[in-house]
Amino acid sequence: MIYGYEWDTSSNLAFALSILPILGIGLLVTLEATVCGFAIAMVLGLGLALLRRSRLKTVAWTTAFLVEFIRDTPLLVQLFFLFYVLPIYGIVLPPFLTGAIALGLQYSAYTSEVYRAGLDAVPKGQWEAALALNLSRANTYSRIVVPQAIPRVLPALGNYLVSMLKETPVLSVVTVADMVNLANLIGDRTFEYLVPLSLVGLIFLILTLLCSAGIHALERVLPKSGISMR
């Protein structure tokens, strides 16, 4: 019995139906971790991209080093560092928050490069027009450059969203009760791993297909020239 649910392993179909409510709990955790992690990656990634374009060389070089360091170290190592090392210094985070931060931090390095490419793709004339209008650097980015860059970076950001979704099972190593964690727990209790793990794989397949379809639909809706920030 797990979370108050019981099942009969005499039938694979009955077994699969009986464990769906349990996996549904893990599905909710998986989606929450993905949304929180991606929100962190979107915001932090944009900040890193802007800092890397700073006119101060020390800021730009430090940011570039930080981005490369995050990209070149495994997510699992970063997750273990946040979960096991930070408590030594008095910083104790809940498992779910630790996992969301680890996902967001890892993918912020990738999204920052996506943002940087999108900002570089904005025509030079747009920058010159903003300069001619005497717009501040902040207004140039917020009202002119970033809105035009968003449609250009959307496909790549969508790919990273799907990748992050498929990376959430890593969080099970720090006791986050995602789908894979619960599927393994079911297998430990029933000695039946095929059905729960197959269901988890099927659910992930459906989720990734839905995410891809949503991103393609959003691409068609957003104007190619950029969104309005008025």
UniProtKB/TrEMBL annotation:
**Keywords linked to the UniProt accession:** Amino-acid transport, Cell membrane, Membrane, Transmembrane, Transmembrane helix, Transport
> Which InterPro entries did the record assign?
AA_ABC_transptr_permease_3TM, ArtM/GltK/GlnP/TcyL/YhdX-like, Ectoine_EhuD, MetI-like, MetI-like_sf
Task: Write down the superkingdom of origin.
Answer: Bacteria
* Residue span(s) of domain ABC transmembrane type-1: 27-215
Annotated compartments:
Cell inner membrane; Cell membrane
Predominant subcellular localization, coarse grouping: membrane
Q: What Pfam families is this protein classified in?
A: BPD_transp_1
Give the protein's recorded name.
Ectoine/hydroxyectoine ABC transporter permease subunit EhuD
